[in-house]
Amino acid sequence: MFKAILITKDDVGYRAQVTNVDETALPEGDVHVKVHYSTLNYKDGLAITGKSPIVRSFPMVPGIDLTGEVIKSASPEFKPGDLVLLNGWGVGESHWGGLAQEARLKSEWLIPLPKAFTAKQSLAIGTAGYTAMLCIMALQKHGVLPGDGEILVTGAAGGVGSFAVSLLHQLGYTVVASSGRLGEADYLKSLGASEVIDRATLTQPGKPLVKERWAAVVDSVGSHTLANACAATKANGAVAACGLAQGMDFPGTVAPFILRGITLYGINSVTQPKQKRIEAWNQLATLCKPDQLLEIAKEISLEQAIAVAADLIDGKVRGRVIVDVNR
Fold this sequence. Notes:
Blueprint: E1 2-10, E2 13-21, E3 31-40, H1 42-49, E4 65-73, E5 83-87, E6 102-105, E7 111-112, H2 119-142, E8 150-153, H3 159-170, E9 174-179, H4 185-191, E10 193-198, E11 214-219, H5 223-231, E12 233-241, H6 255-259, E13 263-266, H7 274-287, H8 290-296, E14 297-301, H9 305-313, E15 320-324
Parallel strand pairs: 8-9, 8-11, 9-10, 11-12, 12-13, 14-15
Antiparallel strand pairs: 1-2, 3-4, 3-6, 3-15, 4-5, 5-7
Helix pairs in contact: 1-9, 2-3, 2-7
């Protein structure tokens, strides 16, 4: 038996609770892992609270991130004792995820825990930092250089935004952070933001084109925020879109694309091939400062995760949340 957050849906309703689960209930997979840490991401918050139909089947263990130690393996790629890392691949949605003390997973979803990080440090980064790195890799591939001008990061006080601000700053870019929590301005400037602007300047319906300002954008918000960011992006600039905190809609026009030639990159962190995942984590290993990781992240217990998930959806959580599933 092991402890897990189990989400159920039946005649009584939709609920998430910490409970004991028998190992025989674990789904199929060729690698059995003793989980050390998981995290709370926005998607986990939606799953736990039921605010969006994230969960594809019931019962479900949420948690799109995990690190842990291999207990058993039928894969030649991993052996008992190996430390592994997982981000995405539908765990916590269609396959039991990391908010549990044990998990059974497919070997192709796992990568070795990067040697630069401890298990806790890797999940201080987690899907949020990994997604931010994929966004930045898209901007790098586009050819955006530090001298090209300001980079806008929306949803900057969240997990993806916090890492995007920090990583871009370390790479020499000038970063402008957009946030609805202006009380977090000192925090964002400590990560490297040169300026913090109120998200209200971006969240309302805007014009198809406005004065050019941004050399590039990392957007985790979507909806009007993304449309307005595109409208202010410089000619031949790039926008990396990875989230939908404001909404899934894109109430914009083609004007920025056909009149200024900007490029909109969609960032899917869930099913990236293993080599690209390793490339992203290798860059993170060179850029992330271990002491700063603990500033971006806080640690909670498995028992606390359900309450914190509600706070996360309500926009009350700054940065990253690491879950020690064994306390």
